[in-house]
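Budget justification aside, the reviewers requested a transparent look at the raw inputs and outputs of the sequence design task funded under Objective 1. We therefore reproduce one unedited record. The lines immediately below are the structure tokens for a 468-residue chain.
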């Protein structure tokens, strides 16, 4: 028998709990910093402002109001379609390359610059429509920056805690994001975004002497979002340190080869394949619902930008509360039942919205000047915000359960691809249906079908996930 002594195990390095907590808080800071681009830019301030300016421009060119509304919505959908296609094509390759090189932070810095540059350029969206196409391009650049930084930060989620904590961490992150979005929106409505009277929601002149005639208060949404992001990303860059990973095949050619091998193997991974397909459809529907919610209110209910902003505050508050609660439910029950419940709720709300005009709700005539459509849409907005936030949070949690530990960024790149490969589909279907029916209201009809397809595909998704 050998008498060779077994060397003692090396002493375990103590875990710096303060550093761990700071890393989690730094990761949450990204959601807080980045959410205003979607809340203020995509949905509640810039999107409706773009739609209003585009409609006035097309009417000045001789189109009737309803046709001009439809043209404006179609143009807005075109911008999101092009941006979505670019994200879909590049996200998986960049994710695979980041995993191969072991570096994600340089990409976060690079696409943060896209975010800030695109947001700043929104200032030049004049009310005369002279920068209409330029603003659409600038918004797309900022949106690409926001989406790509999200891919790389999402891939850090599996490293933040135990598997049982992922749902809670994801939900809390989204909750902080929505709180940041609603606070930013609140500041814009109080101090900057002017209504038809030329004053803000509380009757103040736009801050810093901004000219309401030139809509400078509303246009300030771009610089405001850019400044917000720069300031609140400081905790992220100070506290989040990515683990050292050895570089394997640090070239785009090798990354593309590895990605193709992963894609070829997807049909054999039934749960992951079904989940990517499912999320492709239901997230496309959700993003389109977010993207066109504000413009729908302007074009169908004739809301002012201020009313849309209040609608945004209601939706964002319910989102923050719902995602925080949903994260806890996710950690207890798992993400799959949470996702199913959220989709069913969103389908029901879309059905209500489709049957609503200023004159009637699903054929029930309303008195002239009735506030019922406004109240109903506020309620629908609150439900969309809550259910949509929970759906996004639990979807991220479900993807963690399917992401190989060695290649999380590639996995989230594929997740982004599934969300963007048909990102054109929701806006395009809305655009085509709007054009065919010449009705911005009926243009929302395809979203119910997209949610339904996503729900059906969840049948083949394993609740416990699949990592190999």
């Amino acid at each position: 028998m050998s008498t060779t002594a077994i060397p003692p195990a090396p002493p375990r390095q103590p875990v710096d709990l303060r550093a761990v907590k700071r890393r989690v808080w730094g990761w949450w800071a990204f959601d807080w910093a980045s959410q205003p681009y979607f809340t203020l830019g995509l949905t509640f301030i810039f999107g409706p402002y773009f739609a209003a300016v585009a409609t006035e421009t097309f009417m000045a060119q001789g189109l009737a109001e309803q046709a001009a509304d439809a043209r404006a919505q179609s143009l807005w959908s075109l911008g999101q379609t092009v941006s979505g296609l670019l994200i879909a094509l590049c996200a998986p390759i960049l994710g695979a390359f980041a995993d191969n090189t072991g570096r994600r932070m340089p990409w976060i810095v690079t696409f943060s610059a896209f975010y800030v540059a695109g947001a700043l350029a929104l200032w030049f969206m004049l009310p005369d429509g002279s920068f209409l196409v330029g603003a659409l391009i600038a918004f797309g650049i900022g949106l690409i920056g926001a989406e790509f930084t999200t891919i790389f930060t999402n891939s850090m989620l599996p490293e933040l805690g135990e598997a049982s904590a992922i749902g809670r961490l994801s939900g809390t992150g989204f909750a902080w994001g929505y709180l940041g979005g609603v606070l930013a929106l609140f500041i814009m409505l109080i101090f900057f975004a002017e209504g038809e009277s030329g004053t803000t929601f509380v009757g103040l002149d736009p801050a810093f002497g901004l000219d309401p005639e030139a809509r400078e208060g509303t246009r300030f949404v771009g610089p405001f979002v850019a400044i917000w992001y720069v300031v609140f990303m400081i905790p992220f860059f100070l506290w989040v340190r990515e683990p050292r990973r050895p570089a394997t095949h640090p070239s785009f050619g090798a990354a593309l080869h590895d990605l193709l091998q992963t894609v070829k193997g997807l049909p054999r991974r039934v749960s992951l394949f079904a989940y990517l397909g499912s999320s492709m459809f239901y997230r496309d529907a959700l993003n389109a619902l977010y993207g066109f919610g504000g413009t729908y209110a302007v074009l169908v209910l004739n809301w002012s930008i201020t009313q849309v902003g209040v609608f945004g505050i209601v939706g964002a508050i319910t989102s923050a509360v719902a995602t925080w609660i949903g994260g806890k439910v996710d950690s207890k029950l798992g993400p799959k039942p949470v996702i199913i419940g959220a989709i069913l709720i969103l389908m029901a709300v879309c059905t209500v919205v489709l049957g609503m005009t200023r004159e009637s709700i699903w054929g029930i005539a309303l008195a002239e000047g009735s506030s019922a459509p406004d109240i109903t849409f506020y309620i629908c907005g609150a439900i969309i915000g809550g259910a949509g936030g929970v759906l996004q949070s639990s979807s991220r949690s479900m993807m963690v359960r399917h992401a190989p530990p060695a290649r999380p960024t590639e996995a989230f790149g594929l997740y982004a691809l599934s969300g963007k490969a048909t990102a054109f589909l929701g806006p395009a279907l809305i655009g085509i249906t709007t054009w065919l029916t010449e009705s911005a209201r009926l243009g929302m009809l395809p979203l119910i079908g997209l949610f339904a397809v996503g729900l059906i595909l969840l049948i083949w998704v394993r609740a416990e996930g699949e990592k190999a």
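Residues 65-101 form the longest helix (37 residues). The chain is about 70% helix and 0% strand. Computational costs for records of this kind are itemized in the attached budget.
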